[in-house]
């Protein structure tokens, strides 16, 4: 392998990188406006990335302050055996862990031994999705919201810890920041809707969605079946509720995140046709 050198002029790399990211989103079924909106998110901060080459491919890396520590990010890697250089660069700039985003459901490649931290998934919804027989959906009341919020936050923290990247203390800090960001007005935050799912006279789960999260996309922050009602087929029913809610909000596709370590949920999403838009993997450098 030729010596890897940092480059000052990034135009050639950037054009190719952006086209590869767009191609990944298109392959995952994104219409062009959505693919470009996702690209805009993917290249946030790109002017601050460091780009290097060995003449055969590219490496793009950077570091950010995140979740109480310095995180290295491998944004692009097309150099054979270039991962070691990227990890050394990140460690040399103070990173305690390194993360990578794989776009469009492509395989892990050089990062197969990195644990999965999470995935973004998406699927276009049916024109008129129907709720499953025996299941009714209503809006969560404002009086029910505090108890829902407490349970939702506890579940979110547990998911983050299970994914393996953060300690319980860091996960709680992240949860506090994220909920403040996405629900600044709580129950009355514009664009957000909260649902209770009922069957046989009982609330068997809840839903939280954000309409217009991206062009034509509703983001499903949570479609939760209560533990005592799991194993009864309500998981698929909850996904149907998400699609129904998406159309209620005037959107055409539903998107959501699943944390690493939740193989049961990933299997459900595979079987219901939700494509992987992004997969995030990480490695502890300590």
From TrEMBL:
It holds the Pfam family Acetyltransf_1. InterPro entries: Acyl_CoA_acyltransferase (IPR016181), GNAT_dom (IPR000182). Residues 135-286 form the N-acetyltransferase domain. SUPFAM superfamilies: Acyl-CoA N-acyltransferases (Nat). This is GNAT family N-acetyltransferase.
């Amino acid at each position: 392998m030729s010596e890897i050198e940092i480059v000052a002029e990034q135009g050639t790399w950037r054009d190719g990188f952006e086209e590869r990211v767009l191609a990944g989103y298109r392959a995952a079924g994104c219409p062009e406006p959505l693919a470009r909106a996702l690209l805009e998110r993917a290249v946030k901060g790109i002017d601050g990335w460091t780009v290097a080459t060995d003449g055969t491919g590219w490496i793009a890396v950077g570091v950010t302050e995140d979740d109480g520590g310095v995180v290295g990010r491998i944004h692009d890697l097309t150099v054979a055996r270039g991962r070691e250089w990227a990890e050394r660069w990140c460690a040399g700039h103070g990173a305690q862990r390194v993360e990578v985003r794989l776009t469009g459901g492509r395989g892990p490649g050089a990062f197969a031994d990195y644990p999965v931290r999470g995935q973004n998934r998406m699927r276009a919804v049916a024109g008129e999705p129907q709720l499953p027989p025996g299941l009714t959906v209503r809006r969560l009341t404002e009086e029910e919201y505090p108890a829902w919020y407490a349970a939702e936050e506890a579940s979110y923290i547990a998911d983050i810890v299970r994914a393996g990247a953060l300690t319980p203390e860091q996960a709680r800090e992240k949860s506090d920041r994220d909920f403040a960001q996405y629900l600044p007005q709580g129950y009355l935050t514009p664009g957000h809707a909260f649902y209770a799912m009922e069957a046989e006279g009982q609330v068997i789960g809840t839903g939280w969605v954000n309409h217009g999260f991206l062009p034509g996309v509703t983001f499903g922050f949570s479609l939760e079946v209560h533990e005592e009602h799991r194993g009864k087929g309500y998981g698929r029913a909850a996904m149907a509720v998400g699609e129904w809610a998406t159309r209620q909000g005037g959107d055409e596709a539903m998107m959501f995140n699943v944390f690493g370590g939740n193989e049961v949920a990933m299997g459900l999403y595979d079987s219901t046709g939700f494509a992987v838009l992004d997969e995030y993997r990480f490695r502890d450098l300590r």
